[in-house]
Design goal:
The protein has 331 residues and is mainly alpha-helical. The protein has a domain at 279-330. The chain has helices at residues 2-15, 18-25, 35-42, 45-59, 65-81, 85-97, 109-132, 134-144, 161-175, 180-196, 219-225, 243-248, 273-290, 293-302, 316-330. Helix 8 runs antiparallel to helix 13 (273-290) and helix 13 packs antiparallel against helix 14 (293-302). The longest helix is centred in the middle third of the chain and has 24 residues, at 109-132. Pfam families: FA_hydroxylase. InterPro entries: Fatty_acid_hydroxylase, Sterol_desaturase/TMEM195. Its main location: membrane. One of its GO terms (cellular component) is endomembrane system.
């Protein structure tokens, strides 16, 4: 019975309905008009959409079960290995750095807008470094390994990526005055929307979302981010507000004539859990081992993926730059 109880708790936890069930048991339905009540109703949306997306994949005979299988294994593995690390990291940083904040915001609509812009800056930094520093790419590559986009990709992360990401985002927000309650509200909204933008073509064929494609970051933008096409490499690092991508020149819209190819450029078996989860670490270890001298070994760790001590670099910046030059010369 303990096993069945644990299984039940895990299913309820995955679906995000535990808080809603607790509120229903009170018999007071007015609680759903409170903040906690609204949150309890929003949490299950993404998991339920994921299940619907998978069912539609079976109906359309395009489920790509390999992607779902590996991402499910990653979800289970991360539940046991890194369940509370990110929460502890956020709590530690808030307690440590809040006394050094430049000023302190309050829970108002204008400070909310300020806080969200600051949060997006922190997210941009973490995400950008996750693509531009080889060691950080080892943490982030698991998320880019799937060769199809669907909501299960939301759960495809190396267990240490969340603490690394939250350390950067929380540090930026706290030092720039975003008070903790406001920060947690922004984190909730951002994580929910950040899951939604992984929605696949089975449920949303055109992810541009009409006029919103010009205003916010849409599933279309994030599909571009997950692409390995030369034009799309290392673009669209933001999550909801694409302001920082436009500021730093990493904004890229989806082109109608370029079919998105998902996945990473390293030759790999995307249906193999070990290769998806640890493959980039293995590749980095091999490069460091064969590199001559301490300097080159260190450079393999901190330089962008594709950097080589031989000078035969294949970084995304060079690949994309070559593509743009060739494409512009033909126009």
């Amino acid at each position: 019975m303990d096993i069945l109880g644990t299984l039940y708790d895990e299913v309820v936890g995955f679906l995000g309905i535990s808080q809603a069930l607790e509120l229903l048991q009170t018999g007071d339905y007015s609680v759903f008009s409170t903040y906690d009540g609204v949150v309890s109703l929003i949490y299950p949306i993404i998991p339920l959409l994921l299940l619907l997306e998978f069912i539609l994949g079976l109906v359309y005979k395009k489920p790509n079960t390999k992607v779902y299988k590996v991402n499910f294994l990653i979800y289970v593995f991360n539940r046991f290995i890194g369940r509370f690390i990110a929460i502890a990291m956020v709590t530690l940083i808030i307690g440590w750095l809040q006394p050094y904040a430049l000023f302190q915001t309050k829970m108002t609509w204008y400070w909310f807008i300020y806080g969200y812009i600051v949060w997006e800056f922190g997210h941009f930094l973490y995400h950008y470094w996750g693509h531009k520093v080889r060691l950080f790419w080892c943490l982030h590559s698991t998320h880019h390994a799937p060769e199809q986009m669907n909501l299960s990709v939301t759960h495809a992360h190396f267990f240490l990526e969340a603490p690394y990401a939250d350390a950067i985002r929380t540090t930026v927000c706290i030092l720039l005055g975003v008070e903790p309650v406001l920060l947690f509200l922004i984190m909730f909204i951002d994580s929910t929307y950040g899951a939604f933008i992984h929605i696949g073509e089975n449920m949303m064929k055109d992810g541009r979302m009409g006029f919103l494609n010009k205003v916010i970051l849409t599933p279309s933008h994030h599909r571009v981010h997950h692409a390995r096409n030369p034009l799309y490499m290392d673009t669209n690092f933001c999550n909801l507000l694409n302001i920082w991508d436009k500021v730093f020149g990493t904004y890229q819209e989806e082109q109608h004539d370029i079919q998105i190819e998902y996945g990473i450029t390293r030759k790999m078996n995307s249906g193999n859990f070990l290769d998806v989860y640890f493959g980039e670490f293995v590749a980095l270890f091999k490069d460091v081992a064969k590199a001559p001298g301490l300097k080159n070994k260190l450079l393999y760790i901190i330089m962008p993926p594709g950097w080589s001590h031989t000078g035969e670099h294949q970084t995304s910046k060079l690949v994309r730059g070559t593509y743009l030059r060739e494409h512009l010369s033909k126009e």
